[in-house]
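hi! just following up on the protien thing from before. the input was this:
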Amino acid sequence: MLLTAGALLGHVLLTVGSLLAAPLLLNQWGIVWPVTRFAADELWLLALVAVAGPITALWPAWRASQRALADGLIPRL
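and the predicted 3d structure came back as:
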């Protein structure tokens, strides 16, 4: 969830920054800076990262819990 929120926040910041910088770039240097949405392949990549991130975090978490149990620590509820 944190990974997805970070990706969406990054996209929002990029869009807002582009909207603010586009007129300045055009007036000062004649650079056209288009503000575009995600393309389909970028959305697939974002979805892949959003799914792969938590899955890859499971292995170290599982190993840490196993080592804690091996050291004699007992989880209390």
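The two ends are 24 Å apart (CA to CA).
The chain is about 75% helix and 0% strand.
cheers
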